[in-house]
Structure formats: C-alpha cells, structure tokens
Amino acid sequence: MSFHSGTEQEVFMEMSAPPRCCICLDHFTSPVSIPCGHRFCLSCIGEYWRQCDSKCPLCMTRFPVRPQLNTEQTVHTGAPCDNNGSDPKSGELQQLQTEQTQHTGARWQENPDPLRAGEVPCNDCPEKRRRASKSCLVCLKSYCEPHLEPHYRDTILGRHPLVTVWKNLEDPVCRLHGRQLEKFCRSDQTLVCATCTQTDHRGHRLVTITKEAIKRKNKLKKSLIKVQQMIQEKTKKVEDIQLSVAIVDGAEKKTAAEKQAEGLIKNLEQEIVELKTRSSELEQLSHTDDHLHLLQRFPSLSSPLHTKDWSHVLKSLLHELQEKLEIPSRDPKLQ
C-alpha cells in the first residue's frame, strides 16, 4: 500500500513539475508557441528551424514559411495537437502548467536577464540593461533572447550566422563558423578558419596569412607605381591643353578654344582626383603591419580604376585648335 501511495505521489510530482522544453529538456527560456499549439524555448525552436525545415519537432506539422512565433502564456507545452482538455487530469495539469508559466513570465518581466559586470549588453535593448545571448556576424550586433526573435523567425535573417557572444564584433572572424581566421585559401582567394580547412576548403592550396600578405604587399607597390605614372600622364595632358588654349590670339577665338577644352579638362581633373585617392590608399596599405586588414582590403584596391584613354580625343582637339585657330602644334607626335 505504501509502495502504491509512493508511486502515485511520484507521478503527481512529475505531473506537477514546471513544464519543460522538449528540445533542450530544460525549463522554458523565453517561451514561444507555434501555430500547431506546441511551445518551445525561443532559441531552441529558432535554432531548430535554422538547421531543418520549418516544421514542429513534436507533431511534425510542416509550415510553408516560417510562422509567426506566439508569445502568449496560455499555450500547449507538448500535448497532442487535438487535445481539447476533456480529461480532468489533463486539464488539471494544463492549469498547473499555465500558472507556472505565468509566474515565470512575470518574474522574467521584473528581472529580464540583468546585466552583470563583464557581460555584453544587448544592442537593441533600451539603455542596454539586458545581457546578450548571441551575436550576429552579419548585423555585427549582439542580442538578448527576445531581440533574437527576428533571426529565428525571418527567412533572410535566419541565414545570418549566430555565434556565442563576441565582445569585439569588429574583429575579423569567419562569417560561417564564427572562429578566428587563420589561413588564406589560394584556390578560392579567401580567408578561412580552422573549421573551413577541414570542410569546404579541405585539400585546397592553403598558406599562412603572413605569407600571402607579403605577396600581396609586393603587388600593392607595383600598383602604386603604375597609378603614380597615370597621374603624371594625365596631369601633363591637362597642362598641354591649357597651354595650347593660352597661346590663342584674339578674345573671341580664345573664348571658343576655352569652351572647347573645358569638358575634356574637367574629366581629366576628375580622374586625377580619383587616381590620387587610390594612390593614397595604396601607399597607406602597403605600409601596414596588420596582415589580416591588408588581405581584406586588397581586392577593392587591386581592381583597376575605370579611366578613359583620352589620347585620341586630345589629339583631335589639339589638331582642331591648330587648324581652326591657326596655332602651331607643340607636340610633334600629334602632327
């Protein structure tokens, strides 16, 4: 008899225990429900949907798109979807579960993950009072559980890599695995982490970041010399045009010549400004000791500037000035 009573008591205690998430098997953290009525931790169902199709882990109901997560407190916690509460014991258990959830929800509202010394705050919380639980490597922000909901629910945001909270999100890390970048893959021309070298980049031509940075720095210096030569050439062309216009006699003819040369000079000067900007960036990057920064910036600075070859236009203009305004050509190459 005592054994029977003990068994009943154990069953009652088990049924009366606070509800748990069926994914993590722990007490609910930021509980949410999905359209079929089942409840999970926000992070649990979010991570589940990031790895699998949008379906319920319990009843396997599939959703064509990620559904809206319901934060109401009075929802099912794992009973079958068609449970209408006709069983008195079932209804009694549901009431106990609802009371526990309401109590937990009220406590969460009063003390929502208070920030402690050394912890990373949520970037989207007012006054940053709640601690972050994940960091997004695309948004470059850290979020608490409630503010992570869009990343768990939205199809596009759901593809953003979430990692354990990072204090310095500006530091370069692997956007796929959230680990430190350690190698450079010459096969795919990209920086990779240790996990990358064992998965997608396994068997590729991998070198140290320092070795690749030295190679790229030499290329930067060659590019810098080429850009400086282009600046000198275009500056010389502007000077030639200005001098040719300056020696035109007569106010009327000079005005016509200036108008004719104005557009070409303006375009050349704009290209000179762009080339000087590129030259300054190349100069600065070629002297950096930050090899990671050099490899990340190199692609944008190694691409050629879209400058026009003005030789034909310049030759045509100078010949036109020579013929119409009767001035001698200064450059024998243009005759």
Quaternary organization: single chain
Structural class: mainly alpha
Widest sheet: strand ordering: 4-3-5
> Using DSSP, what is the number of strands?
8
User: Could you estimate the helical fraction of the residues in percent?
Assistant: 40-55%
Order of helices and strands: HEEHHEEHEEEHEHHHH
Mean pLDDT comes to 76
What is the distance, rounded to the nearest whole angstrom, between the alpha carbons of the first and last residues? 120 Å
Per DSSP, the total helix count is 9
Tally of distinct domains: 3
Low-confidence region ranges:
73-97, 103-108
Strand-residue proportion: 5-15%
The gyration radius over C-alpha positions equals: 34 Å
Overall morphology: elongated
Mind describing the biggest β-sheet?
Answer: 3 strands, antiparallel
How is this structure best described in words?
Residues 74-110 are annotated as: Disordered. It holds the Pfam family zf-C3HC4_4. Residues 217-285 form a coiled coil. InterPro entries: E3_ubiq-ligase_TRIM/RNF, TRIM8/14/16/25/29/45/65_CC, Znf_B-box, Znf_RING, Znf_RING/FYVE/PHD, Znf_RING_CS. Residues 92-102 have a biased composition (Low complexity). The chain has three domains: 17-80, Zinc/RING finger domain, C3HC4 (zinc finger) (Herpes Virus-1, 2-Layer Sandwich); 126-208, Classic Zinc Finger (Double Stranded RNA Binding Domain, 2-Layer Sandwich), CATH 3.30.160.60; 209-334. The longest helix is centred in the C-terminal third of the chain and has 38 residues, at 209-246. It has helices at residues 2-16, 42-51, 88-110, 149-153, 194-198, 209-246, 251-286, 291-302, 311-325, and strands at 31-33, 39-41, 134-136, 141-143, 162-163, 181-185, 190-193, 206-208. By secondary structure, it is mainly alpha-helical. Helix 6 runs antiparallel to helix 7 (251-286), helix 7 packs antiparallel against helix 8 (291-302) and helix 7 (251-286) packs antiparallel against helix 9 (311-325). It is built from nine helices and eight strands. The strands form three sheets. It has a three-stranded antiparallel β-sheet with strand order 4-3-5, with no helix packed on it. Mean pLDDT is 76; it is low at 73-97 and 103-108. It is elongated. The termini are far apart.
